[in-house]
Amino acid sequence: DDRESGADNMSKLSITLPPLAPDYSGAASAFFDLGGIVVMHDASGCTGNYTGYDEPRWLNSRSAVYCSGLRRMDAVLGNDDKFIQMALNAAESLDPTLIAFLGSPVPMIIGTDLEGMAAEAEAASGIPSFGINSTGERYYHKGASEVFIKLIKRFAKPFEGERSMGVKKVNVLGMIPLDVGGEMNYHAVTKFITDSGYELVADFAMGLSIAQIERCPSADMNIVVSLSGLDTAEYMQQKYGIPFVCVMPLGSGQNLKDKINGTEKLTAVHDGKKVLIIHEQVFSNSLRECAEEIGSSQITVGSMLDLDSRLSRDGDLDLPDEKSVRNAVNSGEYSLVCGDPEIKKLIKRDDVDFLPLPHAAVSSKLHWNEYPCYIGGEMENIIRRIANP
Question: What is the pLDDT of residues 253-264, one digit of tens each?
Fold first, then answer.
C-alpha cells in the first residue's frame, strides 16, 4: 500500500535529532592516522560533513583529506581519469603511505567503480590504493569495519611464532572518535591497557600505523571496544585464530580484566527501577554489566545504529529512527534514560531522569568536548547512578 510505504518513510524523518554519522565518515576516520591521501568522491558536501562535523582530530591535523569536486558533467560523463590524476598529482608532493577513494551518494547512483580507480592509481604510482564502497546510506561503523578488514588483508604479515601462554599482547579494535570522542579516552583506555601489563600491538584506528597493521596477527587477543571492530575480530579469529572479547574498560577497568581472564561475575536478579541506555552498543553493554554488579536496576540497551544480535540481550531495543526513540523514552517504562544530550529534547515526561553521555556519531561537535573520561572516578560515579537511579 503506497500510503503505508509513505508513512514508513516519514518515520525516518528527524525533526529534533541531527543526522547520524554515515559510512564514509567512519571509513575516513579509520584511515585518518595512517599518513595517506583520502579522496572523498563527492561535490564537497560529504567532505565538509566529515571534516567539519564528524572528525574531532581535524583541527590542527596534517591528515590529507581531499574532495574530488564532483560536478554535474562529471556525473554524466564519468571522468574517472581526471580524479585519478588529481590524486596522483597530490601524491607526488605528499609521498603518502596509501591512497583511498571513498564513495558518496552520487557515485553510488551512477555506479562509479571506486575499486577500479584505486587499481589504476596503484598501477600508475606503486602506492597501495583502496576503493571503499561507502554510499552515505549506511552508518559509520560499516565504513570503518570495511576499511579495517581491507587494511589487514593488504598489510598484515603472517604470524609464524608461538603465541604467549596467557594473554600478554592485544589489539584494540574500533577505537574511533565517532564513538569515544576526541583523544582523551583514546589515551586513557590505551594507557590503562598498557599499565595493566598488556602490550598493545595495534590500535584500530586512533594512533594506527602501517607497522602496527603488519604485526597485528601476533596478538594473543583482540579487544573489541565498539561495533566497528566486531567484524574485524571475527575475521581475525577465522584467519589467525585470535580470540576476542567485546568490552570497553570503564571506571576501575576491572571489567576488561574480568573479560580477558574469563572471570566475569554472575549478576543477581534485578528488580529495581528500569534504566534505558541509548549509545554505542559495546559501550552500553559494558556500562550495563558494570552497573549490574553493584546495583539493583533493570537495564535495557537501545541502539539507533543497527542493533547487532551478536551483542544484544533479549529485550534490548532496536531504535532505527527518531520516532522509535521518542516512543521509548516516553513509554513510562524507564525512570532513567542515558544517552547523547540531544536525546533529552525528546523526553516529555516529568517522571523520567536523564543522564547525558555524549556520542559524537549522534550529536557531532555539539557535545564532543563533554565526554566523561572512561577510566577513573568520573565514570565510577556514572556507573553508580545507573546502578541505583
Answer: 999 999 999 887
